[in-house]
Amino acid sequence: MPPKACVLLLRTSDDKPVDSTNPHDKYEQAIRSRLTSYTSGTLEVHSLGVLKTQATNVQQLASLNPSGISGVVFTSARACKTWNAAMLVRGDIKSAHWAASGALFYAVGKGTAGALKNHQLDFRGTQSGTAEKLGDFIAADPELKKRQQLDSSLLLYLTGDKNRDVLPKKLKEVGIELIELQAYETRYDEHFGEVLEELLGCIRESSRVILGFFAPSSAKMALPVLQQQGIPIPNRSQNDSHDAESNSHGTPRVDIVAIGPTTAEYLSNEENIHVATTASKPTPEGLAEVVDVILSRRDTTGIS
Questions:
Q1: Do residues 275 and 267 lie in contact, with contact meaning Cβ atoms separated by under 8 Å?
Q2: C-alpha to C-alpha distance for 144 and 148, rounded to whole angstroms
Q3: What's the whole-number mean pLDDT along residues 20-30?
Q4: Between 297 and 250, whose confidence is greater?
Q5: pLDDT for 46-70, tens place per residue?
Q6: Does residue 271 contact residue 223 with C-beta atoms inside 8 Å?
Q7: Buried b (16+ CB within 10 A) or exposed e, 221-256
Q8: Could you tell me which of 212, 203, 206, 303 has the C-alpha nearest to residue 255?
Q9: What one-character-per-residue DSSP string does the chain give?
Q10: Domains in the chain and their CATH numbers?
Q11: Are 62 and 24 in contact (CB under 8 A)?
Q12: What is the pTM of this model?
């Protein structure tokens, strides 16, 4: 039997399943399904809400005229929720007037596009995975280039309050203009500390702990709370012998995984944290794969 493992997914509180036919969290489900060698008693997977979001500028988005806008860019499912709210205000629950306008719709991933699956929108660039790669896709999109030659290529970009400027900068360099509209704002979830305290037993009773980070913003808020609770966060100077020593003194081995390269770079460069690995794709399957790799890498002795 493998040693007990505790996997904590540090996310945004409203990152919940949107499919009413499958109410289970897709990330938790993917990890449990992949790690079949673990029984319910030896593997615990929990999602913790670090941040919560609130839609902004719903009325402004609802009243926006698609005329003259060549496309709309989504880099998060939260922006999609604001879009959905705006279309409800407008009385156009399937975005028919935007679809009829001929505007192009871009999404950073299939999960983001899936948040608007009931709308009459044909998304492009969903294989990108990151805002930077989506920027490359948009810049090279032949359909958008045609529109540039005929008229202009003005895009509506729905952002949050903590977006990096990677995508806007890339597009502006190739002459693509953006209207940036903040679609949501992010705040610390005051219940995070309480929920973490309830899971300290899971952490202390496990010989392996994996912390999965989903975004730089949630990582920034979560790390001080994790450290205050005595959870050992590996820094970049630590090595395997140090981890083994920590295990021998009765603390779990902690590994850090990131959902994508942007989060991994933040953890490594800004927080000086050792990131064990990064998911190849920001999907439930991609995260489950790296969790499996880490837990299969080596067994450690149990905690006395």
A1: yes
A2: 6
A3: 74
A4: 297
A5: 999 999 999 999 999 999 999 989 9
A6: yes
A7: bbbebbeeeebbbbeeebeeeebeebbeeebbbbbb
A8: 212
A9: -PPPEEEEEEEETT-----TT--S-HHHHHHHHH-TTS-TTTEEEEEEEEEEEEE--HHHHHT---TT--EEEE-SHHHHHHHHHHHHHHT-TT-HHHHHTT-EEEESSHHHHHTTTTSS--EE-TT--SHHHHHHHHHH-HHHHHHHHHS--EEEEEE-TT--SHHHHHHHHTT-EEEEEE-EEEEE-TTHHHHHHHTHHHHHT-SEEEEEE--HHHHHHHHHHHHHTT----BTT--HHHHHHHHHTT--EEEEEESSHHHHHIIIIIT-B---EE-SSSSHHHHHHHHHHHHHH---PPP-
A10: 5-52+190-297 (3.40.50.10090), 57-182 (3.40.50.10090)
A11: no
A12: 0.76
Q: Which two tokens stand for residue 304?
A: 């006395």
Residue 185 and residue 53 in contact, taking contact as beta carbons nearer than 8 Å: yes
